[in-house]
What we know:
It is globular and about 40 Å long. It is mainly beta. Strands 1, 2, 6, 7, 9 and 14 form a six-stranded antiparallel beta sheet that branches. It has a four-stranded antiparallel beta sheet with strand order 3-4-5-8, with no helix packed on it. Strands 10-11-12-13 form a four-stranded antiparallel beta sheet, with no helix packed on it. Strand 3 and strand 4 (61-62) form a beta hairpin. The chain contains two helices and 14 strands.
Amino acid sequence: GTHVDGSYPFNGSIDDFRIYDHALNEAQIQADMGGFEVLDPFAAGLQVHLDFEPENYVGGQVMNQGSLGPVANGTLGATGSSGEASDPILVPLVDQAMKFDGSDDQVVITGNPKTATGTDDFTTQLWFRTDTTSARQDLFTVGAGAATNEASILYIDTGGQVRVDLAFTSGFSAGPIVTDGDWHHAALSYD
């Protein structure tokens, strides 16, 4: 829920975050976006899958259900010393989701999957719902940052559209306005 440097925090909820080690096509993304079919992560190339279910949330970590296993668990925390110890928090919905406060919350995956940085094929997808409408909000940043010029960033721009940057090169805005408080699915597939 933030940029590499902690800026552009997300205010809303995120669910079912996934990173694949290859580019999925549109039909595969549509079939996968329901999240109801449990995939074999090794066969499907699913490296990271944070589903935010209570049974996969242990001691401040969201357990990775993907093929990278525990090395890619998501550690809950805040970007600065002002963060509350419990942020972000699981919120009960139809399913579970992770709630970000738009201030300093983030989930950090320590076993950074290098394939999702714009240097190799990958697909990253998630469900999200916003609680604010006016500021840039980063949904996720994957990569080592500006030092190596390898990263993928999916964010909501100030106009309320989803935008993507790869390898710190400005990408494109696409689709409808998503800052409406409804649930939306976003996927970034790079081939």
